[in-house]
């Protein structure tokens, strides 16, 4: 038999498909106002949430994206409330008295260990595809999320979960989270974008602060969650050759842009971004153009068209930009964008203009949005080759039948509504634990 042509061999071995792993919204989804610098979290703190509706909204988004032909998976929620954290902090007694004691003495702590924040899987990890790493494996670094306590208790369990979902060590390399310190603050893929044209690949890392520059620019009001040192360490340990590091505008962080994915989104040759996304936006775009060549398509939204405040309110840039099978792109935007005429006009311009974006799909993830998590926050992008795709643990791949079973599971186990004051109810904790056991039977994964 004759050899296949060289380009065909290249395609077979190297062609990447992006698989999105959405966080399945957990049964304790609630509004506790925990995230400093996240305006939606602040504004909805203390309100009643709707966990069942939240999980069904997330599932509907996954199904719609899968129907576009984009491979779709999910990460099961981490068990909450995380009573082992309370015990490690010196609280004692049986579960009921433990919960009552913490509610009486430190209700914020109870909300922190109960938060369903692992649903925002854009913060679960940074992932580098095997085509781009020195050892030819897919690399994962779980984010340490050290900026806030309710998220800082996620990384260990997330790392274990990822190693169960991507088990084959010849294909997948799992790192531990970076040391949890101000110097290495890491919030995962929310601050990383992989861009690619025929001319090259760029791993575009955006950080809020460079720790080693005490006199460098930094936000004044709100924390910069991602450091340059963390992004550099990830690029180094993953063996990435083509990285670029850019500082986020500190003023944007102070207006509520707590991650880069609130102000820019990109995939392939397209980057959508706000004029004030970066510290020196024109220089950043010039450098990207130099590296990616003439087919790179930067699509900017000016401050005059849409203010940063409106970006934060609508979450336009927290849309998912999905590449579909015919090579065109679909923008999966929050329903809140459809409701805003200015934002809708910007989306129309992208679709009508000479861009690969052919369609906008409005998605309702309102329950998550009210805690500052849009469509893109809810997903972790994992670019995989065909053989790597086949090696993913099948219990978390969203087939029609798994989606049906997950839907029935949500209907069976989730509270309709939840207020932070309900979090000390020992019946809730027991019910959630039972729900996790039932989910493990569907996914074949025990989440620790
Ligand atoms: O870390 N909200 C999350 C939202 C994360 C969004 N992710 C991305 N942009 N990629 C956060 O601020 C709110 C929890 C509460 O207040 O109850 C919260 O954790």
CATH architecture group name: 5-stranded Propeller
Q: Output the CATH topology.
A: L-arginine/glycine Amidinotransferase, Chain A
Work out the number of β strands. Answer: 15
Tally the helices: what do you get? 18
Based on CA inertia axes, which overall geometry fits? globular
Write the CATH homologous superfamily: Succinylarginine dihydrolase
- CATH first level: which class? Alpha Beta
| Low-confidence spans | 1-13
Report the oligomer: single chain
Describe this structure in words.
- The strands form five sheets. This protein has a three-stranded mixed β-sheet. It has a three-stranded mixed β-sheet with strand order 3-4-5. A three-stranded mixed β-sheet has the order 6-7-8, sandwiched between helices.
- The protein contains 18 helices and 15 strands.
- Helix 3 runs antiparallel to helix 17, helix 5 crosses helix 6 and helix 17 runs antiparallel to helix 18.
- The N terminus is likely disordered.
- Strand 10, helix 11 and strand 11 form a beta-alpha-beta unit.
- It has 448 residues and is α/β, with parallel strands linked by helices.
- The protein has a single domain, classed as Succinylarginine dihydrolase (L-arginine/glycine Amidinotransferase, Chain A, 5-stranded Propeller).
- The protein is 36% helix and 18% strand.
- Bound molecules: N~2~-(3-carboxypropanoyl)-L-arginine.
- The site of N~2~-(3-carboxypropanoyl)-L-arginine has 22 residues, from loops.
- N~2~-(3-carboxypropanoyl)-L-arginine binds next to loops.
């Amino acid at each position: 038999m004759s050899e296949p042509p060289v380009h065909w061999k290249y395609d077979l071995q190297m062609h990447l498909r992006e698989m999105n792993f959405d966080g399945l919204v957990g049964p304790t989804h609630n509004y506790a106002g925990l995230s400093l610098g996240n305006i939606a979290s602040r504004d909805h703190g203390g309100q009643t949430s709707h966990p069942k509706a939240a999980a069904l909204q997330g599932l509907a988004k996954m199904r719609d994206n899968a129907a576009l032909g984009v491979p779709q998976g999910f990460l099961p929620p981490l068990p909450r409330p995380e009573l082992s954290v309370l015990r490690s902090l010196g609280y004692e007694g049986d579960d009921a008295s433990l919960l009552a004691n913490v509610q009486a003495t430190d209700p914020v702590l109870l909300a922190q260990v109960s938060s369903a924040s692992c649903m925002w899987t854009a913060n679960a990890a940074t992932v580098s595809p095997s085509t781009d790493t020195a050892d030819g494996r897919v690399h994962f670094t779980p984010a340490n999320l050290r900026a806030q306590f309710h998220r800082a208790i996620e990384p260990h369990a997330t790392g274990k979960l990822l190693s169960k979902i991507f088990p084959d060590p010849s294909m997948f390399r799992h790192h531990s989270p970076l040391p949890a310190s101000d110097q290495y603050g890491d919030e995962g893929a929310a601050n990383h974008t992989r861009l690619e044209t025929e001319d090259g690949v760029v791993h575009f890392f955006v950080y809020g602060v460079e720790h080693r520059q005490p006199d460098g620019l930094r936000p004044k009001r709100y924390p910069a969650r991602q450091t340059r040192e963390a992004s550099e360490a990830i690029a180094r340990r993953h063996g990435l050759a083509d990285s670029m590091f850019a500082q986020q505008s500190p003023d944007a962080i102070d207006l509520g842009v707590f991650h880069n994915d609130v102000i820019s989104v990109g995939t392939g040759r397209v980057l959508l971004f706000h004029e004030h996304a970066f510290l020196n936006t024109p220089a950043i775009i010039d450098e990207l153009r130099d590296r990616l060549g003439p087919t790179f398509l930067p699509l900017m939204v000016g401050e005059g068209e849409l203010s940063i405040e409106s970006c934060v309110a609508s979450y336009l840039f927290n849309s998912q930009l999905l590449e579909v099978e015919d090579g065109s792109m679909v923008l999966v935007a929050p329903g809140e964008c459809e409701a805003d005429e200015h934002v809708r006009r910007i989306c129309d311009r992208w679709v009508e203009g000479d861009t690969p974006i052919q369609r906008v799909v409005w998605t309702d993830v309102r329950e998550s949005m009210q805690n500052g998590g849009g469509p893109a926050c809810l997903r972790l992008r994992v670019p995989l080759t065909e053989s790597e795709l086949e090696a993913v643990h099948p219990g978390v791949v969203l087939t029609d039948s798994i989606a049906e079973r997950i839907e029935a599971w949500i209907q069976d186990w989730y509270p309709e509504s939840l207020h932070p004051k309900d979090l000390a109810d020992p019946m809730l904790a027991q019910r959630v634990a039972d729900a996790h056991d039932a989910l493990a039977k569907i996914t074949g994964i025990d989440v620790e």
